[in-house]
Amino acid sequence: MGSLRGRTDELSFLVPGDLSTRTGGYIYDRNIVDGLRRIGWEVDVCSLDSTFPYPTAKALSDANDILKSIPTGRIVVIDGLALAALPALLRPEAVRLRLVALIHHPLAMETGLDEETVRLLKHSERDALNLVRRVIVTSRWTSRILADSDYDVSADSIVVVEPGVDVSPKVRTLFDTGDGALNLICVGTLTARKGHAVLFEALSRLPDKNWKLRCIGSVQRDPVTAEALSEQIRSLGLGDRIELLGEVDDVALQQEYERADVFVLASYLEGYGMALAEAAAHGLPIISTSAGAIPENAWSKAALLVAPGNIEALAEAIARLHDDAALRQQLATNALAARNELPSWTASSQRFAAALEDLL
Q1: DSSP state of 344
Q2: Closest by CA position to 9, among listed 38, 34, 31, 40
Q3: What digits encode the pLDDT tens for the residues 60-90?
Q4: Domains 10-164+343-357 and 182-339 fall in the same CATH topology
């Protein structure tokens, strides 16, 4: 195997679990893989076990077999969800293979981790990042985080490739100023990091406002959080105003965006915020937080941003947009203007390819 060399247009893409998973990181990976293939790259997607980033012994053994089977000289892109668990396996392969890390945000910054887990993840991520030749990140914010002393990644090795958006938005007319409810939409997997609990509590403080919320996102990736959120809705008496729709297909998601008046996401952290970009591309006013990369992106001019975890400020922002139709319309106009600043998936794939080509 050591005598084989990968062709210049070939790469292996290591992803934990199923590439068709409907979360931001997987959507990014899937679109980049498809885009690379369209411009002539031969991409071999290698599915690692779904237990990553906390793999079982068998999952690590299987990952080791996959790495050893990859031809010498080939570019190997490793999704950050798996990278942190792999430094011991990558160390003997780092000379033989052209390793590339794809980082959405450092795993050690995930919401709800205890101090010891954060310490271990940060140490492991740093070790793995020191073994790769290139680090591709999805935002300037993530680039800065990795270049600081905690991770000590050389800025010269980092390339920012933002996610793309391929949406042809409808031109929105003035929003309903009558007695109809303000239709809120939230798109994000039901995990602690997405801040649904904060959002539900904020909405509970607006009993006299006419609003409805529809949440799209998996209830199965973190069933403990999903069940806690369902119980919170029941305890707050909001079962007739908040719906948890789970995952939906692309057609249904498009319909949800089109029926919505405002997009809201109370995240504690976003390494980019793909759902926010998608909402802006649909011409929706946005209410979100100032967490991570959110304030730096083009759609922030279409948003009211509050500090993450600030229930009172979030409630005030929702009430403000509920009462001010002119502000909603202005933010919607800003959203469509921001759409023109967002890259397409084709452009993002081309930039991703350029980040790989100088490794050859």
Answers
A1: P
A2: 40
A3: 999 999 999 999 999 999 999 999 999 999 9
A4: yes
For the chain, the domains span 10-164+343-357, 182-339
Query: Where do the DSSP E strands lie in 61-174?
Result: 75-79, 98-103, 134-137, 158-160
| Prediction pTM value | 0.91
137 has which bridge partners? 103, 160
Pairing of strands 211-216, 262-264: unpaired
Closest to 135 in 3D by CA, of 72, 212, 79, 216: 79
CATH for 10-164+343-357 is 3.40.50.2000
Q: Which residues contact 144 (CB under 8 A, 6 or more apart)?
A: none
CB neighbourhood size of 226 (10 A): 20
The two tokens of residue 271 are: 């390494």
pLDDT for the residue numbered 175 = 47
Q: What is the CATH number of domain 182-339?
A: 3.40.50.2000
Distance CA 181, CA 189 (A): 25
Amino acid at 173: T
